[in-house]
Fold:
Amino acid sequence: MKYYVVDAFADNVFEGNPAGVCIMDDWIPMEKMEKIAIENNLSETAFAVKEGNSYGLRWFTPGGEIDLCGHATLATAYVVFRFVEKNADVLHFNTKKANHHLIVRKNDDLFEMDFPTIIPERYHLTDLMVDALGAVPVEVLRTSRDLIFIFDSEDTVKKLTPDFSKIKQFPVGLSAYVTAKSKEFDFVARAFWPKINVDEDPVCGTMYCSLIPYWREQNGLDKMVARQVSKRGGTVYCEFCGERVKLSGRAALYLIGDICVDEE
Structure:
């Protein structure tokens, strides 16, 4: 099976968020995809199969399948545009776990993803949250899947050293996002996923589905530039479009190889 590793939301290799990508003729058993994701040990490995005029798409973390992933979608689109459908400028993906319809457009060296808007709601702060994060947020928000912590200082977000074992104890929230207003960018953010064995995701595309509507409410901007301030770092170009958001970024190819598996 042909295998690619692409650094998504990256201007150069070794930046952004690496994702594994497998473009297949037919689906292989779910257990095989889970094992490949564990063996690859990246935050996500994407599997795609051409189905009519679109691609079926699934993402697996080392801890199991996930319902929505931005950076691995960008990485998959990069591979399809470059190696499979070289004359295409728009790709459609239908996700298998949550039945999302995702669109990716190629605009010069930027890849623009059309994702659903996720509106967060206010949530309450607990002592466990403060203890786990090591700092006191000014606001806590929640989506159906994730927790969002708003801080009043960009430096605080950059310097956080969370206790991941305590984040795992949060009774709600598959992930913990932290964000603050920025001087150089419109806002900065980080994403922690210890519950699925990914302590910090270098650049988390789906996080921006909920951060874009929040920050638009704060600053009134439909278009924003965000910076994920993880160790690797990455820049995300954001646009609010009502019920949809657009996430754009660049990508860099790191690896092309072959996975040797028994498909019986």
